[in-house]
Amino acid sequence: xxxxxxxxxxxxxxxxxxxxxxxxxxxxxxxxxxxxxxxxxxxxxxxxxxxxxxxxxxxxxxxxxxxxxxxxxxxxxxxxxxxxxxxxxxxxxxxxxxxxxxxxxxxxxxxxxxxxxxxxxxxxxxxxxxxxxxxxxxxxxxxxxxxxxxxxxxxxxxxxxxxxxxxxxxxxxxxxxxxxxxxxxxxxxxxxxxxxxxxxxxxxxxxxxxxxxxxxxxxxxxxxxxxxxxxxxxxxxxxxxxxxxxxxxxxxxxxxxxxxxxxxxxxxxxxxxxxxxxxxxxxxxxxxxxxxxxxxxxxxxxxxxxxxxxxxxxxxxxxxxxxxxxxxxxxxxxxxxxxxxxxxxxxxxxxxxxxxxxxxxxxx
Length: 364
Hints:
Helix content is 57%, strand content 12%. By secondary structure, the protein is an alpha+beta fold. It folds into 3 domains: 9-102, no CATH class; 138-199; 205-351, 2-Layer Sandwich (Heat Shock Protein 90). The relative contact order is 0.07.
């Protein structure tokens, strides 16, 4: 943004300091002059008998004093303002470095806590968050490119096979192409949903989280039955505020993840909702392999899986918990992942509680 050049802050502070010093000096000189001219001080013998003579005697002294104050004010103001603005110069230099793309630079302003130190620390914190966010986005873009490249490469290979063997039976080939294409579509839709949640571009309404979890469970019940899993549900009404579509996707992802990453047989999925004064809680836990805390800490990252990738129609695209995390944060909630001692995972989502419903006045 182009701006008209102006005086520097240091010069403005210098002129302000010098002006204040000269104003104070002028007031003191004026007070001294009028005091002498009235001659009201007892015990004072005036050597000057008239106002004109007093003025001729006082004027040179006043001029010398004002000149001294002007020089003193300019020099002192310049030095003091430079010292006071030195931290601001370091902050400005850091912003220019960050604007050039270097987010690893930190101000690390020394000294005791004051306004400049607080500003520098806030700026360092912002740079750290920006650096982490950019690194996460770069990692996400690299992972997404890798995940999208895989089905596209498979599709290209299958098409080359079909082109080189035009008289062959292509029934199985078409089925494989259909499977790969569906996975690419699912991945693209998951990426779009993740982007939508990150942007928080949705309308909030009053919802019952228990009903949303129940709907997600009923939708995935056939999948659980095919895998021989038992689903246990519990909970009362759990009011919250948010997007019904996104919270349904959140619940579906959690239940789907609990079903897919479970024991081969006789596994269990437990879904519970509870209401608290400050939050609505959804807990989904499943039996399964034992997971280390280090692995669990990465499961909400995009394209991370807790077990070996499963190539079935029911397998996800590695964004399930990442979408859950994004939706939770978009609703100002918290996501907690803990490994179960007996194996499996416990996922807890806490969302803000809905405010008390307003009573509608009775109809006349």
